[in-house]
Every structure is written in C-alpha cells, then in structure tokens.
Amino acid sequence: RMGTAERVETALDGTLNPFNKQPYSKQYRGILRNRKELPVYAQMTGFYDMLTRNQIMIVVGETGSGKTTQIPQLVCHLDVPHSRGKMVACTQPRRIAATSVAKRVADEMDFTLGKEVGYSVRFDDMTEPGTTFLKYMTDGMLLREAMSDPDLSRYSTLILDEAHERTLATDILMGLLKGVTKRRPDLRLIITSATLDTHKFQQYFGTDEYSLAPLFVIQGRTHPVEVIHVQEQKTDYTAAAISEVLRIHRVEGEGDILLFLTGQEEIERACKRIKKGVQDLLKQNPNAVGPLVCIPLYASLDAEQQERIFDPPPPRRNTGGLAGRKVVVSTNIAETSTTVDGIVYVVDSGVSKQSIYNPRIRIQSLSVSPISKASAKQRAGRAGRTKPGKCFRLYTEKEFNAFEGQDLPGILRSNLESTVLALVKIGTKDPVRFDYIDSPAPEALLRASETLNYLGALDNDGDLTILGRTMAELPLDPQLAKALVVSPEFGCSKEILAIVSMLSVPNVWLRPTDKRIEADEARASLTIPGGDHLSLLNVYDSWVQNSRDPNWSWNNYVSQRSLLEAEQARRQLESLMIRFGIKLVSAGKGSGLHDRVREALTCGFFMQVAHKEGRAYFTVKDNHEVFIHPSCGLDDRPEWVLYNEFVLTSRPFIRTVTAIDPEWLLREAESYYDIDSWNDGEAKYSLMRTRNTLPTQRSGRLPKRVKDNAIGE
Ligand code: ADP
Ligand code: MG
C-alpha cells in the first residue's frame, strides 16, 4: 500500500489532474518543477504523518519554504474537500496576499482562478459556490463568516497562516477555533508561522495544560547572511538608504536588493530618486553601472502591480556588459508575507509605520517607529534565500540593542469595538472572559462595550439589540454601520450607502507631486461646502453621471481604481441592505438633502465630534486639541464638526470632516450628550444654549424609530 506522500507525488507527476480528471497543461509541468524545489516537498511524508494523526498542528518554516502556497494544496490531496461538499480555507492577514496567492495557486493546480481555487476579501468574492474547494481569504473575512456560522461548518480544514503576525482577527480566530475543534472532531486546524517563537501557540492549543500541540518544522535551506551595522547614527534614513542602494549597485557583486522603508509615498519617492541617481552615474560614465529597475511593494498595490516583484532583473545592455539588478523597495510586507526570490542584499532602515490605539482617549496614532529585534532578524534573513548574502543596517549596533524583542500583538494596540460586537454576535456573553492568547486590558474591552452601548448596539446588560444585530451583519465599523442602518429614517439611505462605500476604499483624491496645483483645483471644483462627506458623495455621483469614464477620473485627479472598488462595495452593501430589510430610499436633490445626510452621519459619529473654541478645535468630552487636516475641504470654520478619523502623526489631525448642527447631537445621542453632568466649558454652554431653543425634549425616540421604520421584519 502506498503512503499518502507517495500517492500524492504520483498524482502530481501523472497526466490527469486528480481533482477534475482533466489532462494537465504544459504550464503546469513548468511550475511543478519549481514547486518541487521548495523545502516542504522533501518532508511530505512527515507532514502527512502528523496531519493524519492530529486534529491541530502548528507549522513553522522560513519565509519562502512553501507554507502559504503548498500546505493548503497538500491538505486538499488528503482531505478531498470537493468530494464531500466542503472547503479548505487559508487565511491571510493582508488582502493583497490573499488575492495574489490565490492566483498563483490556481496556476499551480492548473485551475481557473475563481473556480476550484478562489479568494474572498472584503467586498470582493472570487469563489463559485459548489465549485470552489480551496479558498484564500483574509482573517477578517473568516471571522465574519464565524459570526453567522459559529461552527464554520462549510470547512473541513482551516489554515491560519502568518499567525506570527498576531493580527487582531487571527488572534480572535485562534480563540474561536480552539472551541470549534472541540465541538467538531472532523475539523482540522493548522496554524502556520514564519518565526520559531511557536511555543506560545503550542501551549495554547495543547489538549491540557501539560501537553503541547505538535509542531512541524520545515527545514529551510538558508544561506549565511553577513550583518553590517553603520558606525554612526543616521539622521535621515531615506537619504542614507538611497545612497546605500547606489553604493551596492556600484561596487557589490551580482544579486538583487531589497530595501525596507515605511509607506507608499516614501517608497515611490525613493524609487524616483534611485532611478535619478543611476541616470546621474551613467551620465558621467556610460559604463559605470549595469541596468537597474526599481519596483515598489506596499499593501495598496493591486495584484497585477504586485506581480512585478517576480520579474527577472533587467538583462545586460550588451554581451559582456555589467549585470542588471532589481531593487524592490518595500514596507514590512516583504518581511514574511511575500517572498521575493533572488535577493542577495537587504538594506534595512530599521523603522516601520506602526499604529497604536489608546482606548482611554480614543486616539489612533500612526508613527514611524523603530522595529523589533525579531523584525530586524526577519529582514536580514531575506538576503540568504538563494546564496550567501549581506544585510546593511542603517542603524548602529547600539541602536539595535535598544530595540524591543518582539512586536506588540495587534490585540494590544487596536480599537476593539468591531471585535466586541463580533464576539457578542457569536455568543460570547462576556468579552472579558474570552480565551485570548494574549488578553487585552479589561479597560480596553469595557471602553469598546461602552461605545457600542452609546451607539445602541448593546443594551445595558451587554446583549445585542435589534439595531446591534443588524449592524453586526454589515462588514463595516460600528459607526458607519449605525449611520447606514438608521439612514432610511432620514430619507437618504442611498446617499449614505454611497458615502459609506467611498469611506471603505483607499483615498480617491490623487495629488501627484508635479501636478499639485491642477489636482487641488480639480478637487476644489468637486468640493461641497458643507463638508468632506458630501464631497465624497458628489465625486461618486459625478463619476456615475459621467458613465464611470476613466478619462473623467483622470481629468479630475481622482482614482478610477478607488471608484471602481467603491462601486463594488456599494453593490455588496446594497444586497445586504435588501437582505436585512434596510430600505433603499432617496429624497432626491434639494429639499434639505444635505442636512439629512449630515444628520444621519451624526447618528453614527456623535462620539467623533469637535467643537471650535477660539481658533482651535477640541474633541467633545475628551477635550483634546485637534487640527483640521489640510486636505479637508471646509472653507469656513464651523462651530461643530464630525470627523471620520483622528490620526496622530506630526500633529493630532482630524480627517474627512463635516459641519454639523449641535441640535442633532442632543436629539440623536441623548445619553452621550447628558450635558447636565458635564464639566463646565464652552462646549457645554453652547449645547445648553442650543437646548434652550428646542421646543420639547424627545426622549427615547431613536430606538423606537429604528424598530418601526428602518428595519423591516
Ligand atoms: P512561505 O509562505 O513559506 O513564505 P510561499 O508559499 O509564499 O512561502 O512561497 C513559496 C515560493 O513560491 C517562493 O519561492 C515564491 O517565490 C514562489 N511564488 C509565490 N508566488 C509566486 C508568484 N506569483 N510567481 C512566482 N513565484 C511565486
Ligand atoms: Mg507565507
């Protein structure tokens, strides 16, 4: 009798695809040859042994060893999910990883993407019910599915990939799945990680407190990497990075370069400057250096643009000329989640963009901060995939020694409102007592519950309200979900739907460095005086009126891609609205439409409000001084504004800002605006004056209206 590994190997080398009995294509064989080189192939017998004997296993292996692309396929060969109407799913922390890996694996398995192999990310579902049996998805999407099907009964095996990244959703999924595997002995669970620090996972998933979950180690074939620190601290890491790349290109041997920087803008700028630097060298001496291509890599690129990292380096200019070189300039996405082959040199800036949420003052701060020692090690490791490499660190050894050992898990630095709503929806009565792998501070959870209570999603006992149940069905932050659910009462749900969709996609406003004036003029012509939310609505409507013409977008400096994504989001949210009985209404232009849109937004965003005092703005209740972001389109300085986000960068900025009438705050958020209990101050006095002008108090109006009108039974 053949073992599973042997049987699978025979099937891979055969002439017919075992999953659909069709002959393999020629392309399949080409890719198979490369796949067989991956370390995981040499250990198939061991892998299948462990997989057949255990319900839960942990897999660890170097980046590029084949965890993401190969393990799910190997599982499918054993699991045969298609023969019993089940699926194998593999989660990814990043949207871009889920979509691009799905495409790669569809090619590897000789299928069309979206048929047998597909992906599912927010607002973009490339699967075919009944046909898809291997699905790559974001961890957030699987968490969403758990909200409506807590046993995840459609799946035979779940693979939580990149667990070392410790994203909020992956952490919550680990807790949920620990419970599900007990209820469903037929469900297999695989946790994969790129770092050796797996003891925590093994302990967490052990059957009792003394036993560890089994660990499968993929033996990588890595080469030594020489790590070189700078001698003196650098003040400008981008400038240092660019000259380091140019230096390597001039004097170091053949091999591609991977440069780690922090964000899109910085990366695009660095690519331009590196290209310019090479041109300058060539002007002095046409034979100074070989050809060089610079390829940016960050999360908001689309899958096609991201594919460019797999291009070979440029060829020599002529036979006997200098070798070409590829430079990939990346965020920490290339640390573990995307493998770039052929890298021999790593240039490590030592920083990354990190986001930390402070629940006490409800502030998200985004800053460029030193990475951890673990990250620095991962970055260096990227240089040793093909042959011995070098890692040039743009920081001193002393600076390195001061880095933290590990990054803080996402759950300890995120806003937990959506998570608490999800946990309550799934049936966790008390989010504080959930079995977390790392528990967040109870205060952070209480703050989140409190916000959900103010929004009307949780009642005073912590149970979901009717409103909360509907909000939980929408793949949106609670504030946006609330605004959308109540919008029919204001006769503007179509408008709020468009605004919510626009807020769910990357920034639409383009501002190329060499066309700033033109871009600002175009933006001004699309701006609506009442606020940025109305301007977003206007952009969307104008785009639709102009037949979604890419030339219109181009001429108006707005992103066609973001608009197409918003359109897709709108379509999906619309079908959810129909399913959950949220009426689609529009009162048409004029007749106070803009006021009603802003009032509906206030129902979701009354906790994100700032008041003008003198020349400055202060957030209500928390009293933080904030600045209106320069990108905002308000032409006067209204007394009261609501904002979509608060970011602490160089200053505390509020972004996407709209003027509101304080009367709406008193009417739509009575319990939050219990101004009699507030400390004295200008905001309180202003609201008291407003209250005195109102005819009568209308208490308890909101919950009733939502029940009667907004949600059909
Ligand atoms: P791991 O998850 O262990 O880091 P992966 O499964 O992502 O490893 O990658 C295995 C190999 O597959 C890598 O060598 C990578 O270069 C290759 N690979 C992945 N995606 C593509 C693609 N789109 N085109 C070409 N090669 C790819
Ligand atoms: Mg991977």
- N-to-C CA distance: 59 Å
Low-confidence stretches: 699-713
**Global structural class:** alpha/beta
General shape:
globular
> What is the makeup of the main sheet?
8 strands, mixed
Ions, cofactors and other bound molecules: adenosine-5'-diphosphate, magnesium ion
Q: Helical percent range?
A: 40-55%
**Spatial strand sequence of the major β-sheet:** 4-3-5-2-6-7-1-8
Strands, total number:
21
How is the secondary structure organized here?
Elements (H helix, E strand, L loop, with lengths): L3 H10 L12 H10 L8 H10 L2 E6 L5 H13 L7 E6 L2 H14 L8 E5 L2 E3 L7 E5 H10 L6 E6 L7 H16 L4 E6 L5 H6 L10 E4 L6 E5 L7 H15 L4 E5 L3 H21 L7 E6 L5 H4 L18 E6 L2 H4 L6 E6 L2 E8 L4 E8 L2 H9 L7 E5 L3 H6 L14 H10 L15 H13 L11 H8 L4 H9 L6 H11 L12 H11 L5 H14 L4 H6 L4 H20 L13 H13 L3 E5 L2 E4 L5 E4 L11 E9 L3 E8 L2 H7 L13 H12 L7 H10 L3
Parallel strand pairs: 1-7, 1-8, 2-5, 2-6, 3-5, 6-7, 9-16, 10-12, 10-13, 11-12, 13-16, 15-20, 19-21
Antiparallel strand pairs: 3-4, 14-15, 17-18, 17-20, 18-19, 20-21
Helix pairs in contact: 4-5, 6-7, 6-15, 9-10, 15-16, 17-18, 18-19, 18-24, 19-21, 19-23
Bound molecules: adenosine-5'-diphosphate (ADP) and magnesium ion.
Adenosine-5'-diphosphate (ADP) binds next to helix 4.
